[in-house]
């Protein structure tokens, strides 16, 4: 968006001060994540700033003179300065866009799309045709009319990032470094460790996702279970943060809020059983992350429905022991 700045058109002399005297709002409040130098102090004059207040009011004019001076000066209007938007990142002579500025994650347009306004937003559905190959040309993945939710970790991180820069109808080549792909482990049996990934992607469509409660029962169950499986994938790789994200998203779809009573008892039981699996898996993930309070809430949900669930009882004991509640864990 354009940046709109108000500039006062007043002939007021600038107060001398050290460079950087104007701080942004966060800096002035002492906020921000980056540790910087000590706060800038105003210049001292004639030894001002000592512990004792040596100020004198003897030479100050009466208050009325300030009012007279203020009234005698015409009020100046403010000008509105509209700065241009930050320009799009430039492509190199071969047409490659350096997505992150590190030279690793790159994108090249083969066929332009329908303009920037057609780009997908986070949490939108995107529909893709894609083919993934290794450096030697070996195909390790191919999808047709593949539908995923952007930002839900349903594909590798590098592709998730770059899809947000594609336009509807666009065809592009994307090169993804190992650290944003399948990492040092690879993906057995088709992606070796530390492999660079090459994707040929066509963005067929993108549209906002409906509220989970508005979806038909079977669709909610199918999407929720798919996200559970994706969480298991990340858990198996030791990526517990992504696993927890997928499990939480699975629970969004597997919640029974908004369901009507027309579903069969068997279907409702299947939904509940799948949800309990997700909570059990989320508990294990939170334990790996040492988020014991969150893990305790997750496991208690399972035990509220299934008091004799062996996995849940075992995990609750370990959680309580990790929190120092040994006697409660034993009981």
From TrEMBL:
Name the segments for region: Disordered.
1-93
Q: Which GO terms describe its cellular component?
A: cytosol; endomembrane system; membrane; mitochondrial envelope
Q: Where are the TPR repeats?
A: 276-309
Per the record, the domain of life is Eukaryota
Q: Where is the composition biased (Basic and acidic residues)?
A: 67-82
Q: What is its EC number?
A: 5.2.1.8
Q: Where is the composition biased (Acidic residues)?
A: 83-93
Q: Give the protein name, as stated in the record.
A: peptidylprolyl isomerase
Organism equals Amblyomma americanum (Lone star tick)
């Amino acid at each position: 968006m354009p940046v709109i700045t108000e500039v006062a058109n007043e002939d007021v002399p600038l107060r001398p001060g050290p460079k950087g005297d104007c701080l942004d709002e966060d800096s002035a409040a002492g906020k921000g994540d980056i540790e910087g130098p000590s706060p800038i102090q105003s210049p001292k004059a004639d030894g001002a700033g000592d512990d004792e207040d040596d100020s004198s009011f003897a030479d100050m004019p009466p208050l009325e003179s300030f009012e007279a001076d203020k009234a005698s000066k015409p009020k100046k209007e403010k000008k509105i300065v509209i700065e241009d938007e930050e320009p799009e990142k430039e492509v190199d002579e071969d047409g490659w866009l350096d997505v992150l500025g590190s030279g690793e994650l790159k994108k090249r347009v083969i066929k332009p799309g329908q303009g920037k306004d057609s780009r997908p937003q986070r949490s939108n559905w995107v529909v893709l045709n894609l083919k993934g190959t290794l450096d030697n040309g070996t195909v390790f993945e191919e999808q047709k009319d593949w539908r995923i939710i952007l930002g839900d970790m349903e594909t590798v991180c590098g592709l998730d990032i770059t899809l947000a820069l594609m336009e509807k109808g666009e065809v592009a080549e994307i090169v993804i470094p190992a650290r944003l792909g399948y990492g040092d482990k690879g993906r057995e049996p088709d992606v070796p460790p530390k492999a660079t990934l090459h994707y040929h992607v066509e963005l067929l469509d993108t549209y906002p996702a409906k509220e989970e409660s508005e979806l038909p029962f079977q669709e909610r169950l199918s999407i929720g279970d798919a996200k559970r499986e994706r969480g298991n994938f990340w858990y198996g790789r030791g990526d517990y943060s992504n696993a927890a994200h997928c499990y939480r998203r699975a629970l969004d779809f597997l919640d029974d809020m908004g369901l009507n009573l027309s579903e069969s008892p068997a279907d409702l039981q299947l939904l509940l059983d799948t949800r309990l699996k997700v909570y059990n898996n989320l508990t294990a993930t939170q334990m790996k992350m040492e988020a014991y309070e969150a893990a305790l809430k997750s496991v208690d949900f399972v035990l509220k429905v299934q008091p004799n669930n062996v996995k849940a009882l075992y995990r609750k004991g370990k959680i309580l022991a990790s929190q120092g509640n040994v006697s409660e864990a034993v009981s």
